[in-house]
Design a protein that fits this description.
- The protein is α+β, with helices and mostly antiparallel strands and 448 residues long.
- Helix content is 40%, strand content 22%.
- A hairpin with a 7-residue loop joins strand 17 and strand 18.
- The longest helix is centred in the middle third of the chain and has 30 residues.
- It is elongated.
């Protein structure tokens, strides 16, 4: 009990007063977890609820569920059973784990639980580190099982499995031995029952503690990278319109481990839960490639674009907005881009032509009473003030407008000609001259 208290304090797993969903399979570890949390509940003011996840992988799996029901009833804790379907194909272990955690998260959300407690031990940690080492994992993989991830906590992570068995026997608390835990077709079982004992006998009787120390050192490194990356993300990122934008050159100057973590954390800000190990390093290689990718691509649940020296991560591509009419004088709201476009008619007496990008002037005599405000279209052409006609796409590329901003730029059109790329450049039509008597001003401002 004191070891678990220490683990909870060291990792700030529980502050007191939380609602905790306890995952109980019926095995020794999860039964011990439930008994310990019940013992701690009064001093920490915990509200406990048990969930047993039935994977349906054995014909008699319902017996495990019944054991957990009876145990929870005897201990006075509310209990539910979630039956899940394990996706066929690939690793049964991985599929069962994914289904189990999905059920735990869903049930915790329904209950309003603050934490989900699972029963991983020091032995589970050592097995995980060795298994990932055999798979060629990097430092993040070798960091093993985190004590806290989101609302999932692992209070038994500093306890050995033999300690737990001795304690349960001393208190005459039964548990269930799942026969699948000895099936050699599962890699973890071969590591647990064959490889670890072999290595322990041949090289080190304390191999579990050695592997756990490797995991702890790697975890320290990973957490340091995460802290550095969080600071770099705050320094480099601009967040707006449901997207995170990074400077391409600045990201490329960071150490690759830090740069990959910056990408992962940027995606996490948008709701992605993709792990770093696979996609962030792969994504980093793509965004930093020479030349950079010309098309958007999906990665870790987000869309990534590289354009004009910037990298944009978003849940979806920026979409064009519908065409609107602007009456002169008058105004039109553009909520999709958070702006208002206003048209004013003013006298030239004492008038000075504005130089701001968001405010332009035209000769009112050459501007119709109704203007069209729209997004760009394929094949658009534009005649910039003081220059010849050219393809709009080429003009925007030369103006260093990133790809994702091009479809959001308001184009003000009159009689088929683009008068103004709002906020970027005016066209050559209707210039203000000495003969101009009245001016039409177009002003782009943020939507209040």
């Amino acid at each position: 009990l004191e070891a678990v208290r220490s683990t909870i304090r060291r990792h700030a797993m529980l502050a007191g007063g939380e609602s905790v969903l306890v995952a109980v399979s019926g095995g020794a570890d999860s039964v011990a977890l439930l008994r310990i949390l019940i013992a701690l509940a009064p001093e920490l003011s915990l509200r406990l609820h048990v969930l047993h996840v039935d994977h349906g992988l054995r014909p008699d799996s319902h017996r495990d569920a019944e054991f957990v029901r009876q145990l929870a009833a005897r201990l006075g804790v509310a209990v539910d059973v979630a039956r899940v379907t394990v996706a066929p194909g690939g690793s049964v272990e991985a599929a069962a784990r994914a289904a189990r955690y999905a059920a735990l998260e869903a049930h915790a959300t329904r209950l309003g639980a603050d934490r989900i407690a699972v029963g991983h031990t020091t032995d589970d940690q050592a097995e995980t580190v060795l298994m990932r080492m055999l798979g060629g994992a990097g430092v993040r993989g070798l960091a093993g099982i985190p004590a806290v991830r989101g609302r999932i906590i692992r209070p038994l992570l500093d306890l050995r499995r033999p300690q737990i068995v001795v304690a349960l026997r001393a208190m005459e608390q039964p548990w269930i031995e799942d026969p699948s835990n000895r099936d050699p077709k599962f890699l973890r079982n071969r590591i647990r029952h064959e490889l670890l004992p072999l290595l322990g006998a041949a090289y080190s009787a304390d191999l579990v503690q050695t592997l756990t120390r490797v995991g702890r050192l790697c975890r320290d490194t990973v957490e340091a990278i995460e802290r550095i990356a969080a600071r770099e993300l705050d320094r480099l990122a601009v967040s707006a319109d449901g997207a995170v934008v990074l400077e391409h050159a600045a990201l490329g100057e960071l150490p690759r481990q830090v740069a990959a973590e910056v990408l992962r954390q940027a995606a996490a800000r948008l709701g992605s839960r993709a792990p770093l190990r696979a996609w962030a390093h792969r994504g980093l290689a793509r965004v930093l490639a020479t030349p950079p990718p010309r098309r958007p691509f999906r990665l870790g649940g987000v869309t990534v674009e590289v354009s004009c020296g910037r990298i944009r991560l978003a849940v979806a591509l920026a979409r064009p907005w519908p065409e609107r009419e602007l009456t002169v004088p008058g105004h039109v709201e553009l909520p999709e881009i958070g702006c208002v476009l206003e048209a004013r008619v003013v006298s030239t007496a004492g008038y000075a032509v504005p130089r701001a990008r968001t405010r332009v002037a035209f000769d009112a005599a050459a501007v119709p009473a109704r203007l069209t405000v729209r997004a760009r279209r394929r094949g658009d052409r534009f005649s910039p003030f003081g220059a010849g006609e050219r393809r709009l796409k080429a003009f925007l590329i030369d103006a260093k407008i990133p790809r994702w901003e091009r479809s959001r730029l308001p184009l003000v059109e009159a009689d088929g000609a683009i008068l103004w790329i709002a906020g970027v450049r005016r066209g050559r039509e209707a210039p203000v001259t000495a003969a101009t008597q009245r001016v039409v001003e177009l002003i782009l401002t943020p939507l209040a």
